[in-house]
Each structure stands twice: as C-alpha cells, then as structure tokens.
Amino acid sequence: MIAFWILAPIMVVAALGMVLVRKAVHSALLLAVVMVGLAVLYAALEAPFLFAVQIIVYTGAVLMLFLFVLMLVGVDSSDSLIETLKGQRVLAAVLGLFFAGLVIAGVSQATYGAATAFDPAIDNVPGIAQLLFSKYVFAFEVTSALLITAALGAMVLAHRERLSPKPSQRDMALRRMRDYADHGVHPGALPNPGMFARHNSVDTPALLPDGTPSELSISRVMRARGTVRDVSRDQRTAEEIEAQAKQIEGNRR
Amino acid sequence: MSVEPYLVLSALLFAVGAVGVLVRRNAIVVFMCIELMLNASNLAFVAFARQHGDLDGQIAAFFVMVVAAAEVVVGLAIIMTIFRTRRSASVDDASLLKY
What is the pLDDT of residues A152-194, one digit of tens each? Predict the structure, then answer.
C-alpha cells in the first residue's frame, strides 16, 4: 500500500501533465511515467506476469513506436492553442470532473468485503498459462489472427508506391542551377554553423557580413523547436571585451 | 489491502484520458490519451483480480494489452498516411468527409 500512496499522486500529476503540456514529445515521456507507475502497481497487486508485460509491451514497444512516429511526423507539430469550438475546453473539463466524481461516488458506495488471497498452490505465471490455454484458448487463437491482421494493415498503410522516377544526381544538379537562374538561390553547399570563441555547436548560427545571423546555417528542425542560440548577446559581450581591451591598451600607452 | 483506492486511481486516470481526447487537437496526443484510458481500465481489472483471488481479471488485462498493441500499430500507420498526404497531424485538418 506504501507503493500505491507514493505512486498514485505521481501518476495523476503525470497524466494531467500529459494532457496539459504543449509539446507532443513531452506528452509521450509523461505517458511513460504513468506506464511505469502502473507496472509497479501490478507488481504490488501480485501480478508479476503483467508487470513484465506492461514494461515490455507498453514502455518498450508502444511508447517507442509513439516516439518514432513523432520524430517522423516532425517534432515541430505542436498543438495549436486556438479553440475551434467555443467553450469546448471548459465544457470538456467540467464533463471530465463530473465523470470522475460519478465513478468515484459509485466506487465508494459499493462494499467489497475482505480480499481473498490467490491460491498459494498455483504460481502466477503457470496459473495464467493454465487459464490461457484451457478456458480462453479460443480468444487466444483469435488474438493471433488479430496480430497478423494488424501487421498486414500497418504494412499496407505505410507502403508507398513511387509515382515519379527517383531524381538522379544529374537531375538534382540541373534543378540547383535552374533555381540559381530563376530565383538566385546559391547553388553551392549551405553555410556551416557559427564557429566562435565561446560556442561552435550546431545550434549557433553563422553571422553574415553585416552581423545578422544566417538562417540557412541552422537546421530547420532546431528553428521550429526554438532552440537556436541567440548570438546577439555574445556579440555584445565580444564588443564589450574589445572595448575593455582597447581601454587597457590605451592606459598602457 | 483494500481495492477501493486502486479503483479511484483508475477512475481518475480514465477521466484525465477522456478529457485529453476531447481537448487535444494533435492526433498522436489523442491516441496517447486513448492508451491512458485503456491502461486505467487494466488497473481496475488487476485490482479486482487481487480482490477476488482469481486470475481471470489478469487474463482480461492481458487481452486488453494485446488489442491495444495492435490498435497502436494500425492507428499510427493511419496517422502517418494522413500526415503524408495532408502535411498535418491535427484532427481538425482531416475533415474532408464533412463536405
């Protein structure tokens, strides 16, 4: 019961955070917290098999799949905060509170009696195996059909026929030159990120001759995430240091 | 050992998931909220299995996990196809059936 009282608040807060947080990746990580918490609760409820399955299937497979798709779809696709239906959020929150109150009231009205212990003669995993391959064997077999269908469906949905021929190196070079002729896009390689005395990481934009940061020197994803370093501050620091150095030199003379 | 706190936690998690489905616009986050609701019901199953000293509840939770895993695979594939054609993962943008 100690595990429950420690984990329950963490799980509820993580679930609330999952709904409220704006970035989808943060939601996925908070969902992982809830999943691991549930796994520990399963262990506390004398279900070691489900504990292992929860960790392997949910935190291992399902959440990794979620993160994988998030990375494919683009991390910059954060939620818009515009309400398409007026008052929908407030109504949803009120409905959620009402629903939770209703279920909790129902749960607390019922009497449960003393808990019966599991049969000590049968271990958890052999017990589940016995049930799965006798009483529930038909459901188990249907499950295999479901899994095959799911794998096939995912393959069909994710498969894409190539409609146009793959561009060759020659095509790409021609397109680059055409872009240069029509729009004046520089045909060479994109500029490197900035190399300065303090930072040379990929989030530091290079500076153009007039001192403005170059948009092209930074990955598109970093700009969308808003993790590009603000170099104007470093520039100011550099100017200050230069001024101080000049002053010291002047004093020496 | 009382089963009631587990059921209350399960109800709370389910309600949070339901509110998330109603509020969020990103299809992937909506999907995560559905997973949260499935997991909340699993917790109730396992808690009742412990209460009755019967493994049938755990079997039910096990089957829910299997179906949820299959559902995630197909659902995420659908979201990816929609994203590839419409360049958006927002549920508001997938509204062609409306017109």
Answer: 999 998 888 788 888 899 999 999 999 999 988 888 888 888 8
> Tokens at residue A239, please?
């100017």
In this structure, the number of other CB atoms found within 10 A of the CB of residue A134 comes to 9
Of B19, B32, B59, the CB nearest to A128: B59
CA angle A42, B16, B39 (to 5 degrees): 30
Q: Is A72 on the interface with B (CB under 8 A)?
A: yes
pLDDT tens digits for range A115-150: 888 888 888 899 999 999 999 999 999 999 999 999
| Residue B64 near residue B42, CB atoms below 8 Å | yes
Determine the residue among B16, B74, B98 to mutate to test chain A binding: the one whose Cβ has the most chain A Cβ atoms within 10 Å.
B16
ipTM of the complex, rounded to two decimals: 0.92
Burial of B50 (0-12, 13-18, 19+ CB in 10 A): buried
Sequence-separated (6 or more) residues with CB below 8 Å from residue B13 = A11, A12, A15, A34, B36, B37, B39, B40, B43
> Which helix or strand (DSSP H or E) is residue A224 part of?
helix A220-225
Q: What count of CB pairs under 8 Å joins A to B?
A: 222
Query: Which site among B37, B38, B73 would you substitute to test the A interface, given the most A Cβ atoms closer than 10 Å to its Cβ?
Result: B73
Which distant-in-sequence residues (6+ apart) come within 8 Å of B70 by Cβ?
A146, A147, A149, A150
Query: What digits encode the pLDDT tens for the residues B15-58?
Result: 999 999 999 888 899 999 999 999 999 999 999 999 998 899 99
User: A48-73 burial string, b = 16+ CB within 10 Å, else e?
Assistant: ebbbebbbebbbeebbebbbebbeeb
The pTM for the full model equals 0.80
